[in-house]
Design a protein that fits this description.
There is one protein chain. With 195 residues, this protein is an all-alpha fold. 0% of the residues are buried. It contains 4 helices and no strands.
Length: 195
């Protein structure tokens, strides 16, 4: 500690001499007419000033600067760690999203296949229903046609009978003779007696 205080005192004395030469001796040196010593003098004082600044920074600023730099280092380390954690989280989220997309594509394919199967099944059911309905309609149409045909046949028969009766009633009296009338009467009486 004593050694350090001696060094500091010596340095302070040296600085005081240099500063006094710089501030006070300037006018005295300017009176001389030598111009080649001035650049060397300025260079030496620059080095001395630089040394003073370095000494002061090292002596009084080293601890705060080092603390500041350590603090910045820790902050940066924390920020880098946080960013790396976020990066890992985002990477895991991306992996989960890709997995979900793959699963959803598989589910979509399964759903598509199921819908196609259901569509095919429904199509087969519709075709069967249509075929059954067409068979039923054909059977029903055949029944109706037979019914209409039977009705038309009966109507035609009835009209034919009516026409035949009308024709017979019209022609029968002209062609019927009294002998035929007697003959029919006898036959009628014989057939009714037999019954």
């Amino acid at each position: 500690m004593k050694c350090m205080s001696k060094i500091v005192r010596a340095f302070c004395c040296f600085m005081a001499v240099v500063l006094s030469l710089h501030f006070l001796g300037h006018d005295a040196f300017a009176a001389e007419k030598s111009s080649n010593w001035r650049p060397i003098y300025d260079l030496i004082l620059r080095y001395i000033n630089f040394g003073i600044i370095v000494f002061l920074i090292i002596k009084y600023g080293k601890t705060p600067i080092m603390n500041f730099l350590r603090g910045q280092k820790e902050k940066l380390a924390k920020e880098i760690k946080r960013l790396e954690d976020e990066k890992e989280d985002v990477a895991s989220q991306v992996k989960e999203i890709i997995k979900t997309i793959d699963e959803s594509e598989e589910r979509f394919e399964e759903l598509k296949e199921r819908i196609v199967r259901q569509g095919e099944k429904k199509k087969a059911e519709i075709i069967q229903t249509a075929q059954a309905q067409s068979k039923s309609m054909i059977v029903d149409s055949k029944r109706r046609i037979e019914s209409y045909f039977l009705q038309a046949k009966n109507e035609f028969r009835a009209e034919l009978i009516d026409t035949a009766v009308d024709l017979a009633l019209e022609r029968f009296p002209k062609e019927m003779t009294p002998e035929d009338n007697e003959k029919f009467t006898r036959e009628f009486l014989t057939s009714s007696a037999a019954e």
